[in-house]
Amino acid sequence: MILDHQEKPLASWTGKDRIDGKIIDCLTIIFKTGGCSWNRCLMCGYKFERHDHKDPLFLKNSIISQLNWISNNYETGKFRLIKIFTSGSFLDPVEVPEDARNEILVRFSDKIVIFETRPEYVNDKVLDEVANLMKQNEPGRNFYISMGLETTNDKIREKCIDKGNTFNDFRNAAEITKKYGAGVKTYLMMKPLFLSEKEAIEDMKKSILESAPYSDLISMNVCTVQSKTEVEYYWKRGAYRPAYLWSVIDVLLNTDCGIHVTCDPVGGGKKRGPHNCGACDYDLVDAINNYSLNADREYLKAHFETDCKCKNEWKFILENERPYGMPLTS
Amino acid sequence: MILDHQEKPLASWTGKDRIDGKIIDCLTIIFKTGGCSWNRCLMCGYKFERHDHKDPLFLKNSIISQLNWISNNYETGKFRLIKIFTSGSFLDPVEVPEDARNEILVRFSDKIVIFETRPEYVNDKVLDEVANLMKQNEPGRNFYISMGLETTNDKIREKCIDKGNTFNDFRNAAEITKKYGAGVKTYLMMKPLFLSEKEAIEDMKKSILESAPYSDLISMNVCTVQSKTEVEYYWKRGAYRPAYLWSVIDVLLNTDCGIHVTCDPVGGGKKRGPHNCGACDYDLVDAINNYSLNADREYLKAHFETDCKCKNEWKFILENERPYGMPLTS
Amino acid sequence: MFEVTKREGPARTGVFSEGELTLNTPCVIDTIETFPSLGTMAYSNIPLYADGEFCGRFLEQQGEFFISHPASPESLKAGSGAAVMVPNWHTVITDPRNYVKWILDMKTRHPPDTMWYAPASALPSNVATLIASGFDLFDYIAVDLKTSQGIFCNPDGEYPADEYLNGGTCGCEGCLKGDLKLHNRIALESEIAKVILRIKEGTIREYLEKQSLNAPNLVSILRFFDREHKFAESSTPVARPIRLYTNSGDSINRPEIKRFMQRVVSRYIPSRTDAAVILPCSARKPYSSSQSHRKYMGAIRDRAHEIILTSPLALVPRELEGVYPAGHYDVPVTGYWDMEERNIIGKVVEDYFTKNRYEQVFVHLDGDAAIIAKDALERAGIEPIFTATGNSPTSHDSIRNLEQAMAGLPRKSHNYIRGMLSWQFGVDVDTSGMIIKGRFGNRKVLKKKTQLFSIENETGLYRPTFEGWEHLAGRYTVSIDDFVPQGDILAPGVIGCDPEIRPGDEVFVKGSKAIATGRASMGSEEMIGSKRGVAVKVRKVKKI
Amino acid sequence: MFEVTKREGPARTGVFSEGELTLNTPCVIDTIETFPSLGTMAYSNIPLYADGEFCGRFLEQQGEFFISHPASPESLKAGSGAAVMVPNWHTVITDPRNYVKWILDMKTRHPPDTMWYAPASALPSNVATLIASGFDLFDYIAVDLKTSQGIFCNPDGEYPADEYLNGGTCGCEGCLKGDLKLHNRIALESEIAKVILRIKEGTIREYLEKQSLNAPNLVSILRFFDREHKFAESSTPVARPIRLYTNSGDSINRPEIKRFMQRVVSRYIPSRTDAAVILPCSARKPYSSSQSHRKYMGAIRDRAHEIILTSPLALVPRELEGVYPAGHYDVPVTGYWDMEERNIIGKVVEDYFTKNRYEQVFVHLDGDAAIIAKDALERAGIEPIFTATGNSPTSHDSIRNLEQAMAGLPRKSHNYIRGMLSWQFGVDVDTSGMIIKGRFGNRKVLKKKTQLFSIENETGLYRPTFEGWEHLAGRYTVSIDDFVPQGDILAPGVIGCDPEIRPGDEVFVKGSKAIATGRASMGSEEMIGSKRGVAVKVRKVKKI
C-alpha cells in the first residue's frame, strides 16, 4: 500500500474541530499543487507555495505521493474529519489534476472531507463526480466545499482583496453544492487592506449575516501579514494594521446569524496577526480559540468585558479612525 | 600781557552756575598738570590726562602757558565765577607747583574761584597763602575749595572708590577752609562700583545729609564709565550699571539738607552714563539740568511723576537687586 | 477660498473662508464637524504608498476637500482657493525621504493659494515641522489618540501621563483639572499659536531647528528639505528687520545662508581685483562698527578690497556687510570651526576666488580661519600673503604687518553701490557719479541731485526710485495688465514676473497704463500661480 | 544637609534639609524668605570678574550660604551638605568661556554633596543649562524682572508680552488671568519640573541639546563643557535602559559617545586579528537582529572579526553590539555623513586599526562610509579589500563578493565574553571554558557549572557574581571600612575606590569584614568626596 516515492505535503497537522455541534478529531493537509490559477489576492501568501511545473502528470504524481506520505505518517483511521487545502482550489483541474483529486477523495471517502475551492470550479459535472466518489457511510453530510467569500460586499472584495469574483458567484456555487448533498463552508476575511477598524467590523458583521443563508459552516479568518504580499508592503510602511482582537471578539459576540461562526486567530497577539497591546493578547486569543471549539458565548463575553489599558485606545479607534486618516495605531 | 608760548588746557567751557541762589556766568578750566598723586580711584578716567614730566619748572611753565591761552581765548572779564579742575588736586604742590598755582589765583583774584583738591592738601599754611592772594572785592566768599568726599561712608569709599581718605579727613579740611573764610564745595559720587541701585540711593541720601553741615555747596556726580578704568572693566563684563536717572531724581527730590544739591548728569542717557530705557532719558536729563540751575523742585517732581515703561523695572530693581545678584539690568 | 497672508518658506499664515466659516491658519479644529463630508467617505482609503494604477482605479474626488495623493496623475490639479487634503499623511512622518519627496511633488503640482489639511498628524512635538512643510489645517485626532493611550503630549514629545499630568510640567487648565484630553488639546493649540507668532516674527526656522531635535525623523525631514534648497528658498523672505540666529549645525544650510553664499559667488561684482584682504569677522555688526575692524581699516586705508571670512556666511565683501543676513546673523562662537562648516565655507572661498581673479590676496586671519582660507585659495591656484602674526589679527604686530603689506597699493574706496546692486539685483551698474548721502538711518543714493535709491536701515536693502530702476536693466520687473494700480497689486493682476523675485524684494511694476515701485509680498512662483493675495505692496505709481 | 539622589553628569536631583525646611532640588523658591540672611548682606557685592586680591580683601563668608567665587583661595572649601551660592552668576551667562571655566574650577574645589544656588539667573529658556551645570537652587528674580519689563518668558526665550500673553501660546492660570508675573513664575516652575523628569528619565542631555538652541551662548556653553569631557563624564551613568537619541550635531561629543569610542580604542580587546570585516550599521538594534546583518553574517560565517562602522559611535565590534549605547542609539539618517562626523569617526577607525594590527581588513561598505574607512585605514597604513559592489552592501553581488573574500579564512566564533569584559572592566580575561547560556532576557556566563556573570538585558552590561569578580583583576573595587553592610553602602562608608567607577557601574565591595557585589549609584569622585548618599546599591553580601 505504501509507495516508495513519498513527498511531504506543504503542511499537515491534527486537531479538534466543531462540526454540527460535535467536536471531532480532524486532520488538516495542505497539498503542494500547481498553485492557484487566480493568484492575485492581496493578502495571500501562498502564491509561492506551488510547483513550478505545470505538467499534469508531474502534478498528479506529486500530489499522490504527498497523499501517500500522509497515509504513512498518520493513523488516518483516527480522524473523522479531513480538511484539505491547496494554495488555490482543490477543484481547479489545472492546479489539481482530476485523477489526483479523485484519488484523494477515494482515500478519504469514509470520512467527512472539507476541501477548498474558488466558486468558479464548482459546477454540476464536477460535483456529480465528487459526490459519487464519497461514500455515504453515516447520516449527515460527508463532504463540504469551503469557499473564500471573504466579504459579501463586492466592492470591498474587488478593491481590498482583488478576489476576482462576486457574491453572486458564491451563491451560485453554494446552490450547486447543496444540490449534491454537500455542505458549504464559507470563509470570511476580517479586515483586509484599506478598511478602517470600524469598517472592517461592520463589513464582517454584515457579511456573516448575508452569507449565513448559503452556508452550513462559517469560518472567519482574520487577515495576517504574510511575506511578500501587498498587505506586507503596506504594513511595513505603517499603512496597514491587522485587526484588534477586541474587534474579532466584538464580531463573534455581536453577530447572530444562527450559525456558530468559528475563528482561528492565526498569528494572534503577534505584530503580523490580529493583536491588541501585548498585555491582554494571550488571554484573548485563548478565549477566541475556546469559543470556536466550544461555542461558549459567556466565556468569551466575560473576556470581552475585562478591561485592559488598550481598550480605550480601541474604542477611540472605532470612533475616530477614518479612511483618510488610518491606521491610527500599529 | 599775552605771552608767546600758549598751550591749550585739557578743556575749557563757559556756562551758568548757581551760587548762593544766584545764577552767574561761569568759566570752567581743566588744566593739564602733573597729575593726581593718589591716582587710584576706581572710576577715575583722568589718570592718563597728565604730563609725563614731573619736573616742577616744566609743569609751572606749562600751567602758566595754559592760563595764558585762557586769557587769550576768553573775555575773562565777563565771568563772575571761575571753576578750576586738574586731574588731581589744585593744592598738591607736586602736581601744581606753588608758583603756578599762585599765578592762577592772582589772575582770577577779582572773581569767585572754585578749585578742587584732595583734603590732605588743605592746611593752614596753604590756606593762609591762598586767602591772602584772593582780593576781597565784594561781600561774600570769593573762593571755594571743592573736595571729592564721594560718600560719607568710609567703608564704601574704601571698597568702591579706593579714595584713600576718610570722612574725618574731609571734615578737618572743611573746618580749616571755613577758618579762612572760604566756602566748601562737596562732591559726592552716586553709584560707584559694587553698590546695588538701592544701596547707591541710600548711600547718597545719607551722604548728602551727613556732609551738608560741612558744606556750602554740594554737587552730586553720577558715576560714568570712563575709558580704561576699573569701572569700565566691570561694565564691559556686565558687572556694573550706571545709575538710573530715576534714582538720580529720587535723591535730588527726596533729600532735604538745606543746601541746594546740584547735579550735572554727565553722559546722561548714554550707556556709559546714568540712563534709563532710552525713551525717557532725554527729558529727564533736561529736567535734572534745569533743577541744578533753577532749583525748581516742582518741575523736577512733575518729571519724576511721569510714567515710562522703564519705571516699573526701576522700582523692581530697587526692591530686588541684591549685592549677590546684581546688576540686574544694563 | 484661501489667501496666504505671510510666507516664511513653505510655512505661512492664511485665511480660509467659505460662507459663514472663517479659519485663520495654521489652526486645529474638529475637522469633521466643520467639513461634514469627511464623515461620508466610507471605504475610500488609499494609502500614501499606493501606486498610480491603484489611485487611478480607486481614488475618487469627493466631499469638500480636494484629495491629493503623491501618485495621482500630474494633470489632476486643485483649484486656487481650494481646501486640499492629503489622506493618511501621518503614516509618512517616520519616513523622511518620502515625506519630503511627496511634499515637493504635491506642492509644486497644486496652486500655492490652497489650504492644506494633514489629517491625524499633528502633535505638539511635530506640528512645527508640519506647518513648515506647508500644512495649514489640523485635527485633534492624533492628540486625542494619545489621550486614549494615557500619553501626555508637550512640545518636546510624548510621555507617560501618570508622571507628567501631575508632574508640574504644565500649568494649563487640563493639568489643573487632571484632564489629560483637555491638556493634550491645549498643548496642540498652544504650540500652533507659538508657531504662528514665529511665522509673524520671521523666526520659524530657528524654532524648526529646535523642534526638529524632538525626533530623528524630524531632523532628517529638515535636512532633506535643505537639500532641496530651491523649494523653500523660493518663498523665503529676502530680508528681515531682525536678527538671524544660526545656533544649530543645520543653520548653515538654511535658505537665507545658502542664498547669500550663492549670490556672493554668482552675482556680486567686486570693484577692484588688484588686491584683496581677507579679514576675520566680529561679533558686532556691521563689522566696521567693531573695534577690531576699525583697526584693520585703519591699516588698510582703502588699499585693498576687504572681504570678511565668517561662519556660516563664508565670505562677506565689505560692501555687503550691512545687508541681510550679513548684518544680522549671530552664531555660537567657541573658536573651533567644525569640519562641515570648514568644508562649505572653503568651497565658497574657492569658488569666489576662482571666479574673481585678484592679483594679490592677503590673508589677515589666524587659527582655523587662516587654514580654511589657505586651503581654499590653494585649490583656486592662489598663493596668498599672510599678514596676521603671533597670537591675534588685532595684535600690534599683526596690524603693523598688515599696514606694511599694503604699502604701494593704490587707494581706492569700496564701491558700495555697485557691490550692493550686483548682489541685490544681479546687475552690473555703471555707478559713476552716484554717491551715498545722508546719516545712518536715512541714507540715499544720488546721482547729481536725483535720488536713485534709498537704503533701508533695518535690512540694508536698496529701494530704487523710478529713476533708480532705469539702471537695473529690467530685472525684478512685475508685469501687470492694462490697469492703473489703486493701492496694492493683487496676484490675479500679475501677468508675468522675473522668476528671481522673492517675498520682500524690491520690484518694478510695469503695465501698459502705469508703472510703479513697490515691494513683493510673495515670490515669483506664487505671483504666477495664485489667484488671491497681495503680490506687490505698491509705494509709488505713475500713469503712463 | 544636602544629599544627591540621582546624577546625570553635573545635573542631579537632591534633597536639602535643615530643621523644618526640606527642598527637593532642583527647585525655585523665594530664597530671601527661606534664607533670611540673604536680606542682610548690605554692601557685600563682589563681581564674578573680581580678582583674587580684591576677593581676599572684601569677600566675607556670612549668612546661611557658603559663598563661592571663582577667584577665592583654593583652600577655602564648603563643607559637605552646605548650601553654596555663587553671587552674580547671571552676569556670566553670556560669557560661555568663563562660565564653563569657573564651573569647573568651583565644582572641583567644593564637595559634590553641596546645594548650589545661582541667584537672579533662572529663566525658563536657560534653566536647563543652569541645572546641567550643577546648580540646584533658583529664585524668581530673573523672571520677575522680565515681568517688570513687560516680557513674556517661555521655554524658548523671551518675547513681548503684548503679543504673547493673549497669543494663545500658553494655557496657564497666569495667561488665563492676564497675569504676566504669575505666568512667568509658572513657566519657570514648569520648566524646572520638566528638567527634573528628564533627569529621572535619563534624557536630560537630549533636552539640553534642544534647549541650548535658544541662544548662541547656550550652545557655546554646551560645547565648552563637551570639550572638558572628563568633567561631565565622571558623573554620567555608564548605561541606561532607554534609547539614546543623537539628534543634534553636538550629540557626537556627548560623554556617553566619547566614552564608548575611547573604550573601544583603549580597553577593548579583539579575539582574533587575522581578518576583520567592517560592516555598515542597521537601524534595528542590535544589528544582528536586522535583515541586512543576517545576510552579512551568513556570508562571513565566522571567518572574520565583524566590526560595524556607524555614526556617531564610530566602531562597534560585534561583541559589543548589545551594550549601551551601541544597542540603544538612534540617529537621523539621510545617507549623508557630515565632515565633522567623518573626521571624528575616521580618527577612531585610524586609532583602532593602528592599535589592533589585523592581517587583512575587508571593507564591506559603500558611499561615504566606505570613503571614511578607506581614508582612515590608509592613515593606519592598511590596504583594505573592498567587498561591496554596485549599489548596496546587501545586494546579491555584494554578498557573494563578501562570501568569496572569506574563502580560506579559518572559522572562529566571536568571543563575546572576552570582548565585553575588556570593554566594561578594562581587563583581559582568559575566557577558556566560559560559555553564554540562557535565552535572551536571562543570559548568563558559566564556567563549568559556576555562574560568573549575568547579562543585563536592558543595558547589555555584565553583572559579576563573586566568582565572576575573581576574574576581574581587582578592577572596579570599592573599599569599605570594617563593617558588614546592612543594605546599601553609603558614601561615608567608602574609604577608597577605583577612579574609573561611574554611576551604574558594577562594583566589587571589599572590606575587612565582608565583601559584596553591587551597582554604583555615584561615580568615584563622589564616593570619595561626599558624606551623604548611597554609594553602592548592594546585591549580595558575604561575611569574611
TrEMBL record, chains A, B:
Gene Ontology molecular-function annotations: 4 iron, 4 sulfur cluster binding; catalytic activity; metal ion binding
Swiss-Prot/TrEMBL GO biological process terms: tRNA wobble base 5-methoxycarbonylmethyl-2-thiouridinylation
Pfam families the record matches: Radical_SAM (PF04055)
Organism: Methanolacinia petrolearia (strain DSM 11571 / OCM 486 / SEBR 4847)
Secretion signal, residue range per the UniProt entry: none
Protein name according to UniProt: Radical SAM domain protein
Cofactor: [4Fe-4S] cluster
Domain Elp3/MiaA/NifB-like radical SAM core: 26-254
Xref: PANTHER family: ELONGATOR COMPLEX PROTEIN 3, HISTONE ACETYLTRANSFERASE-RELATED
Keyword Iron-sulfur: yes
Keywords: 4Fe-4S, Iron, Iron-sulfur, Metal-binding, S-adenosyl-L-methionine
Record's GO cellular component terms: cytoplasm
Automatic annotation (TrEMBL), chains C, D:
Source taxon at top rank: Archaea
Descriptive protein name: PUA domain containing protein
Domain PUA: 476-543
InterPro entries, per database record: Archaeosine_synthase_1, DUF5591, PUA, PUA-like_sf, PUA_sf, TGT-like_sf, Uncharacterised_CHP00451, Uracil-DNA_glycosylase-like_sf
Entry keyword set: tRNA processing
GO annotation terms (biological process): tRNA modification
Alphabetized GO MF terms: RNA binding
PROSITE patterns registered for this protein in UniProt: PUA
Pathway: tRNA modification; archaeosine-tRNA biosynthesis
Family the UniProt entry places it in: Belongs to the archaeosine synthase type 1 family.
